[in-house]
Write a structure and sequence with these properties.
By secondary structure, the chain is of the alpha/beta class. It has helices at residues 7-17, 46-63, 81-90, 107-120, 125-131, 141-153, 158-167, 178-197, 203-214, 216-220, 225-241, 249-260, 307-322, 435-438, and strands spanning 38-43, 71-75, 96-97, 273-276, 285-290, 324-333, 359-360, 398-401, 405-415, 418-425, 429-434, 441-444. A seven-stranded parallel beta sheet has the order 3-4-2-5-6-1-7. The longest helix is centred in the middle third of the chain and has 20 residues, at 178-197. Residues 362-379 have low confidence and may be disordered.
C-alpha cells in the first residue's frame, strides 16, 4: 500500500504499531522520500506546551509556507484543549475545533464558572438561574419563578433573598412544596458558606468544597468514558485555578471572562485544526502536532491495567502519526495540572519505541525556530511574532508581595512568555511566582 506521508513518518508509525500484540508486521512505503526529521519537544508545563504549539505553527506558515489549515493539533482528551485554545487566544490567532465544543463552552465548565460567579456576586441572576437546579434539587421552573417573585416583593435580588432565606430572616416563597422550600434554604446556606470561605481557602480548595457540597461529580460522571471526560474538564478548570492562589476568585473570573466569550471559526476559515485523536481517523494534514505525550494521558491512565485498552491507546498514537504528510511534532510536558494535580510527568512509554535516528529536538538546532519577522499575507498567522519578555527582576532585589510581605529575589528565569521569580520571604518562606500574576512591588535593588 502506498501512503502519502514521508518515509520517516511511516517508519515511526510502524515501530509503534509493530509492538501491538498479535500484529503481523508489515512494510509501509511511499514515493515521497525520507522527508523532515520528526521533532520531539519537552515543554515545562501545559502552558509552555501550548505556547510551543502556537509558535511552531506560526513558524511553519512563515518559513515552510504552509497554510494555517494545513496544520492540526491532536490530543488524547478534550480537556487538553483548554491550554491550547488559550494560547491561540493570547496570540490573537484563529483556530477551529473539530468534533467538540470549545473548552469554555462545555456544559460542565459553564456550570462551575456560573457557581463561582454567583459566589463572587450573588446579584448575578443569570448564573443563579443556570445552576439553581444543577445538579437537580427538585426546583422546577415554577419554583424558580416563585423565588424571583418573592425576591421582587421583598425588594431584594434573588441571590440576596436566598442568602436571607438561609439565615432565616425571610420566609420561603409562598406556594412551594416542603421539598422545594428546603432545597432553596439549603442552597442559601451553602452559598453563604462558600462566600465566607473565599477569604479563608485557596481558590482550588474552595472549588473542591463547592463540588463536594453539590455532589457535582456524581451528576456528570456516570462511569462511562464520556462521563470521565466531563469530569476531566472540571478538573482542568480546577487545575487552572491553582495558578490563582495568590490572586483569588475575582482575578480568576476576570481572566476566564477574557477567553470564555471567544468563538471558534467556521470550517471555511483558514485556521489550524484542534481535535482529539479519536476524531482524527480518515483525515490528513501537512503538519501534525501531537500534544500530551505523557504516561497517564497517552496512553491514558485508564488503560494501565487492561491489555486491550493499552493496545487501543497504541492504535490511537499510530493514527496520530499517520495523519501527518510532511511534518510531525511530538510534544510533552515536564509537569502539568492534569487531573487537578501539578506533579511531574513521565514521558509516554510509546516514545521509547521510536528510534533516535528518526527524531530531532529543537534544542539540537535542527527543529523549528521562532518567527522573527512579519510575513505579509492574508491571514493573521503570517504577521505574528512570538513575544520575548525582558526580565524585570534579578537576584538580590527586594520586593513586596500583597500576601507574603517583603522578600529577596533569589533567581529570575524567563519561561517563554513570562518570568518565573524565586523569592525568599521573611514570613512565608521560599516561593516561586509568575511575575505577570504576582503583583510584586520593587522596594530596592
Amino acid at each position: 500500500q502506498n501512503y502519502r506521508s514521508t518515509q520517516r513518518i511511516l517508519d515511526a508509525a510502524m515501530v509503534v504499531i509493530d509492538r501491538h500484540p498479535d500484529r503481523q508486521k508489515k512494510r509501509l512505503f511511499t514515493d515521497r522520500g525520507q522527508g523532515s526529521e520528526i521533532v520531539l519537544h519537552e515543554a515545562y508545563d501545559e502552558e509552555g506546551e501550548a505556547a510551543y504549539i502556537v509558535e511552531t505553527i506560526a513558524a511553519l506558515t512563515l518559513h515552510r509556507h504552509l497554510e494555517p489549515r494545513d496544520c492540526a493539533v491532536m490530543y488524547r482528551t478534550n480537556a487538553q484543549s483548554r491550554a491550547i485554545e488559550e494560547a491561540f487566544l493570547r496570540a490573537n490567532l484563529p483556530y477551529r475545533l473539530v468534533g467538540a465544543q470549545r473548552f469554555y463552552g462545555r456544559r460542565e465548565v459553564k456550570d462551575l464558572i456560573a457557581y463561582l460567579r454567583l459566589v463572587h456576586n450573588p446579584a448575578d441572576q443569570v448564573s443563579l438561574v443556570r445552576i439553581l437546579n444543577t445538579p437537580p434539587r427538585g426546583l422546577g421552573a415554577k419554583s424558580i419563578e416563585s423565588l424571583l417573585q418573592a425576591a421582587a416583593r421583598a425588594s431584594l435580588g434573588p441571590g440576596a433573598y436566598l442568602l436571607a432565606l438561609g439565615e432565616g430572616t425571610v420566609e420561603a416563597p409562598a406556594g412551594l412544596s416542603g421539598r422545594a422550600a428546603l432545597a432553596l434554604t439549603t442552597f442559601g446556606r451553602q452559598l453563604a458558606d462558600w462566600r465566607a470561605r473565599v477569604s479563608e481557602l485557596p481558590l482550588a480548595e474552595l472549588i473542591d468544597r463547592l463540588l463536594a457540597d453539590v455532589r457535582y461529580r456524581a451528576f456528570i460522571d456516570d462511569g462511562t468514558e464520556a462521563g470521565e471526560d466531563r469530569w476531566a474538564n472540571v478538573l482542568e478548570l480546577r487545575g487552572l485555578a491553582q495558578d490563582y492562589t495568590d490572586l483569588g476568585l475575582s482575578e480568576f473570573l476576570q481572566q476566564v471572562a477574557l477567553v470564555s466569550d471567544q468563538d471558534t471559526l467556521t470550517e471555511t476559515m483558514n485556521a489550524p485544526v484542534l481535535l482529539t485523536l479519536h476524531a482524527a481517523k480518515g483525515l490528513e494534514f501537512r503538519a501534525v502536532l501531537v500534544a500530551g505525550l505523557d504516561d497517564g494521558l497517552l496512553p491514558h491512565q485508564r488503560s494501565f491495567d487492561d491489555r486491550e485498552s493499552m493496545a487501543e491507546e497504541r492504535r490511537l498514537f499510530y493514527v496520530g502519526i499517520t495523519r501527518a504528510k510532511d511534518f510531525l511534532y511530538l510534544v510533552r510536558a515536564f509537569r502539568r495540572h492534569t487531573f487537578g494535580t501539578g506533579g511531574m510527568c513521565e514521558p509516554s512509554r510509546f516514545l521509547q519505541d521510536i528510534p533516535t535516528d528518526l527524531l530531532a529536538g529543537d534544542e539540537s538546532g535542527r527543529g523549528p525556530t521562532r518567527a522573527q519577522a512579519a510575513y505579509e499575507r492574508q491571514t493573521r498567522w503570517e504577521s505574528w511574532v512570538a513575544p520575548m519578555p525582558e526580565p524585570r527582576f534579578h537576584a538580590g532585589m527586594r520586593v513586596q508581595h500583597p500576601a507574603f510581605g517583603d522578600g529577596i529575589v533569589m533567581e529570575s528565569v524567563i519561561d517563554r512568555e513570562d518570568e518565573t521569580v524565586t523569592i525568599a520571604f521573611a514570613r512565608a518562606g521560599v516561593k516561586r511566582l509568575a511575575a505577570s500574576l504576582a503583583r510584586l512591588e520593587v522596594l530596592d535593588g
